[in-house]
Each structure stands twice: as structure tokens, then as C-alpha cells.
From TrEMBL:
Gene source species: Mucilaginibacter gracilis
N-terminal signal peptide: none
Sequence ranges assigned to domain L-fucose isomerase C-terminal in this UniProt record: 340-466
CC annotations in GO: cytoplasm
Listed GO MF terms: L-fucose isomerase activity
Keyword annotations of the record: Carbohydrate metabolism, Isomerase
Disulfide bond is among the record's keywords: no
InterPro entries the record matches: Fuc_isomerase_C (IPR015888), Fucose_isomerase_N/cen_sf (IPR009015)
Protein name: L-fucose isomerase-like protein
CDD domains: L-fuc_L-ara-isomerases
Top-level taxon of the source organism: Bacteria
Any one biological process term the GO annotation gives: fucose metabolic process
């Protein structure tokens, strides 16, 4: 997530307020954006009065500038060093044609500078700007404090969150997901509406699992790409007791999966694993999925397309990998703790003790020898954001639940990929999940980004949001 963010900047102005306020704001913006490595697209100080936006002609000039950079701009930042001209701000955004998040900042007044020559009235102006944006049907984001100086740590935190919101919105409106294989017959829980996703800009590209396995079977152990991927896998995680022939099978499958992703320009995948892959190919795909997720190309098992969509959204919000997990077990008699589990495909970031192993539960039906490639490892204590995106077909909507908690170091004696989560009022959350028909899969991310996701998915994507507090 190192790409430099680019924001369109509007400095609002009203002619009967001191001109120097606009010049001071420009200097503040340049200093702050340089500090945060944000690229600003804004009028030069000679293109309008001090580079501010007040008249309709100013709005046209600023909108034309934004249009020239429409492929770069991911969000618009409105600064109000004084009351500002609400029509100028709204017209600029409307004329630009940009459908991106908008953050509204207003400068605070100084009690000792409320004379005619130095007062701002930005508190009042912000309300007017928001009123006009609401009338124009333009979505916008507010700072935590109604007025705040750009150098204030709280505003800096708000701006960083806004950049993440822009990243999530841009990413989700054009994400491409590969669905590899059919949904396992016993997993109705992961059914979803491809049409509802497409209406929201989310494209799903499908492939029959037999095509992937057929191509993998045609590769030989000596093939240069197979050897290269084998070396990559060995460098990624210790092989443990995994035999060499199983490692070759894993590497061949990894080659073909990467080719499929490249061919279709995919951002994420959801792969059939239970149980066709083990029965027809003889290994688990977990290691490859883990590598992809670690490399910010999230991959979910059981063809859980909306699961991997959730992984992608959380990844965009935090800048770190996500993992698909089961809400799996109670943790003794603690009502606010539970066990998170999966056979073994979590990103390496969650597994400091990572090792390539088998999937014992799956092995009871397909033979443990056919499940090499699952990962074993325990996730240590860390921050936790959890959540789930789901299509609700009867309602024709996308719905989401989100929340934050902690992953703990509580004792947990089991196998696979595993973690203990502590979530306030967990029992109420489970009531909500069950009553609203959500899946048994949830996504975890080692961050505190529920607020970012709520704003991006609810306000800008227009999805139904429940934030668990």
C-alpha cells in the first residue's frame, strides 16, 4: 500500500473575509501533504483569487483541473479557512464529474481574533457547504471535530483515515475476483449473487477446477516455472514433514493459479478445495492461497467470493493482509471470547510459527496423505478488526457487519490455523449474525479499521452496515 495518494483540493473563500486566510491555508496544505506524502491537485495562486474557489468561473477552472487528473484523484479535500462559498464548492465537485469521497475541513476561530479583520466563521460555513452538497446529492465525510486546524493531530488522523476510505472505495468499484471451481455441495452458506456484485462494480471471473488441475497435471517437476515456484514456497515456509512429491504437486498448482490470475488481471480469488482438490489432485491449495494473501492478492477457500471480497476491503483499509476464518468454537465459559480457525490458508503475517503440514479433519475422509499443503500456526495477540460482506438476494442488497476487538495469547491446544478472539458483547454479535443470515465465515485483520470500512462501505458504496459496539 505504498502508492502515493492524490487528492483534489478545494480551498473555499468569501470575498469579505481577509485574503490572507486563503494564503495561510495554502501554506498549511502544502506542508501537511508533503509530510504525509499526499499529492495535491489544486488551483495555482494566480489561477483564481489566491487559488481559492468562490465564483462559478473559479468552480469551472477547478473542475477542469480535476478532470485532467481524474485517473489519479481518489478523493476531494475541501478546506474552509473562512466561511467559504458553498455554491463554489458544490459546483466544482458537480462539474468535475468525479464520483469520489469528499472530506470537509473547517478552521477554528481564535477567541482573541473575532474582529472584522480576522474572524473566520468557518464553523457556520461548514454547515452551509454540507447543506449544499446534500442538496446536490454529493456524498461527503466529516472530521471528528466540527472545526479543526490542519496541524491538529486529530485532523491528521482523520486525513489518514480518509485516504484509506478513498483507497477502499476506488478498489471495490473495480475489483476483479476469480471464482475457481464450483461451490462445495455441502456449503450453501457461501452462495452469493454475482449480479448484485456486478451492479456494484465487482466483477467475478469463473473457471472450472478441472481446467486448473488439468493444466497443473501436464507440468513436470523439471519445468523451470515449477522449480521457480518450488523455491518460492520453500523460502516462504518450512516444509516440515511434507514429502518432496507433495511439494512438487503444490508448486505445479501454484504455477497455474498465478498464470490464471495474470491472464485475467485478478485482484483476488476464491478457490474450491473441499474436497475435490484433494480427491482429484492429491494436495491442499492452502499454501498457495496463503502466499497470495500475504502478497495482497487475497484468496478464500470454499469458493467464498464475498469472503474474499471482505478480505480485499479490509486489506485496502489497513494496508495489511486479511484472513478468512470460521467462527469456530466457544473459549471455555468466557462469553466474550471464541476460537477462530481454518484448515490452514492464513497469510504468513498471522503465523509467526508457520509450517506446511496437513489438514487432519479433512484427512479423515480423503486421507491425510492427500492434504499436504495446509499450514499449521498460531496467531499471537494483536489488534482485531473483523467483519463480513454478504449479498442478501431476497432484499437485492449488499449487507455488512463490522467490529473491533483483540486477538489474545490465551492457551489453545489444537491444530491448523488458529487464534483466540476477545470481542465485547460477543453473544449479542452472534445473535445478530444468526438472525440476519450471515455466513459462518468471517474475515479478520490485524488493525483497528472498522470506522474506515463503515464510512467507505456504508456512506460511499451505499451498503447496509451494522457496526457492533
Amino acid at each position: 500500500m505504498s502508492n502515493k495518494a492524490t487528492l483534489g483540493v478545494i480551498i473555499g473563500n468569501r470575498d469579505f473575509f481577509p485574503d490572507r486566510l486563503v494564503s495561510e491555508a495554502r501554506a498549511d496544505i502544502i506542508a501537511l501533504f508533503t509530510q504525509l506524502n499526499i499529492n495535491a491537485i489544486m488551483l495555482g495562486d494566480t489561477e483564481s483569487k489566491l487559488g481559492g474557489v468562490e465564483t462559478f468561473k473559479d468552480a469551472q477552472k477547478c473542475a477542469d483541473l480535476f478532470k485532467k487528473h481524474r485517473e489519479e484523484i481518489t478523493g476531494i479535500m475541501v478546506f474552509l479557512p473562512n466561511f467559504g462559498d458553498e455554491k463554489g464548492v458544490a459546483d466544482t465537485i458537480k462539474l468535475s464529474g468525479l464520483n469520489v469521497p469528499v472530506l470537509i475541513q473547517a478552521y477554528p476561530d481564535d477567541l482573541n481574533k473575532l474582529d472584522v479583520a480576522r474572524r473566520r466563521d468557518s464553523w457556520c460555513g461548514k454547515i452551509s457547504v454540507c447543506n449544499n452538497l446534500y442538496q446536490y446529492g454529493i456524498k461527503y465525510t466529516l472530521t471528528d471535530d466540527h472545526v479543526t486546524h490542519p496541524s491538529d493531530p486529530q485532523f491528521i488522523a482523520n486525513l489518514k483515515d480518509f485516504v484509506a476510505i478513498c483507497r477502499v472505495v476506488k478498489g471495490l468499484r473495480s475489483v476483479r475476483i476469480g471464482a475457481i471451481g464450483a461451490r462445495p455441495g455441502a456449503f450453501n452458506t457461501v452462495r452469493y449473487s454475482e449480479k448484485i456484485l456486478q451492479r456494484n462494480g465487482i466483477t467475478v471471473t469463473t473457471a472450472d477446477l478441472s481446467e486448473i488441475l488439468g493444466k497443473a497435471d501436464k507440468l513436470t517437476a523439471e519445468h523451470p516455472e515449477v522449480q521457480a515456484h518450488l523455491n518460492k514456497i520453500n523460502a516462504y515456509a518450512p516444509k516440515g514433514l511434507t514429502p518432496d512429491d507433495a511439494m512438487i504437486q503444490i508448486a505445479k498448482l501454484d504455477v497455474v493459479l498465478n498464470q490464471f490470475m495474470d491472464e485475467h488481471a485478478l485482484d483476488a480469488t476464491a478457490i474450491q478445495c473441499w474436497t475435490s482438490l484433494q480427491q482429484n489432485y492429491g494436495c491442499n491449495v492452502c499454501t498457495s492461497m496463503s502466499i497470495m494473501s500475504e502478497n495482497m492478492l487475497p484468496s478464500a477457500c470454499e469458493v467464498d467470493v464475498t469472503g474474499t471480497l471482505t478480505m480485499y476491503a479490509m486489506q485496502l483499509a489497513s494496508g495489511s493482509p486479511s484472513a478468512l476464518v470460521d467462527w469456530n468454537n466457544n473459549y471455555a465459559d468466557d462469553p466474550n471470547k471464541c476460537v477462530l480457525f481454518h484448515c490452514g490458508n492464513w497469510a504468513k503475517s498471522f503465523l509467526p510459527d508457520i509450517q506446511i503440514s496437513t489438514a487432519p479433519i479433512l484427512g479423515t475422509t480423503v486421507g491425510v496423505e492427500n492434504t499436504y499443503g495446509a499450514l499449521d500456526g498460531r496467531t499471537p495477540a494483536s489488534p482485531l478488526t473483523y467483519g463480513r460482506i454478504s449479498t442478501d438476494d431476497p432484499k437485492g442488497i449488499i449487507k455488512v457487519y463490522l467490529g473491533e476487538g483483540e486477538l489474545t495469547d490465551d492457551a489453545l491446544n489444537t491444530f491448523g490455523n488458529r487464534a483466540v478472539a476477545e470481542i465485547p458483547d460477543l453473544q449479542s454479535l452472534m445473535q445478530y449474525v444468526c438472525r440476519n443470515g450471515f455466513e459462518h465465515h468471517v474475515v479478520m485483520n490485524a488493525s483497528k479499521t472498522a470506522g474506515i470500512l463503515k464510512e467507505a462501505l456504508g456512506n460511499y458504496m451505499g451498503w447496509e452496515i451494522y457496526e457492533h459496539k
